[in-house]
Prior knowledge:
The protein is of the alpha+beta class. The protein has helices at residues 14-17, 29-42, 93-107, 127-132, 164-167, 186-199, 212-218, 242-250; strands at residues 4-8, 47-53, 56-65, 78-86, 112-117, 136-141, 145-151, 175-179, 204-208, 226-230, 233-236. Helix 6 (186-199) packs across helix 8 (242-250). It is globular and about 55 Å long. The N and C termini lie far apart (58 Å). The model has no long low-confidence stretch (mean pLDDT 95).
Amino acid sequence: MDKIEFSELSTENIEEKGCYCLRSKPKSTGYQGKKGWLIDQFRQGLTYIQMLENEKLAGFIEYTPIEHSSRVVYGENYYVIHCLWANITGKGYATQLIDKVIQDAKDHNKNGVIVVTNPTTSWTPSKEVFIKNDFVEVEHAPYGFELLVYKMEDAPNPYFPNDWEERLTRYNNQLTILQTAQCPYIDIAIDNVIEAATKLNIKADIQYLQTREELLKLSPTPYGVYGVVYRNQLISYHRLTVHSAMKRMRELV
């Protein structure tokens, strides 16, 4: 029988246990940035739980109170799931991780749990596992984003802002990359866009979103932590190859 364990990261054990994503490159800028971000966010109530099968990593979940979330969603007294991943399928591990969040929300008298999904990218969790676990889809946003919620109380639904088109017009047609440190793979995504832009003689402006207020105001999508805008159009909110980024920018020149 498989031995299943859960291990919660903290300031005290993160050096020993490490975080899940990009763990094969612990000295990379992305990994180190994520680690520093986690240490700061632990003070704001963020929870990061790793699941182990027979002492080997099998998945993880990251969630936080909505007032400190990296997703562009409004609501009161909710937890927001940032990331969910199970690298062993067919054993219900994702459901077990979701159950951890739901129980935590109940223990802390939260109104419920929120997750943002998108079927066009693996950079957000899969919608289906949440529907299976009694989450309800309550809203959509452009580019395929979906807002799902598991509610414990008769509280108002969370919601997306509705000014997505306006957000794309704030950068004077310039190639603008918006980023945070929440995802360690963002550095790789940015490097690909910069390389593509250099080949096209396009200058890029990188804006680091430091606060949730900036993220809520400036992010071009609900994903929040990464976005590329050029000529009032969204180029991407997830990693593109250099070739794909060049193709997308050429279409707008």
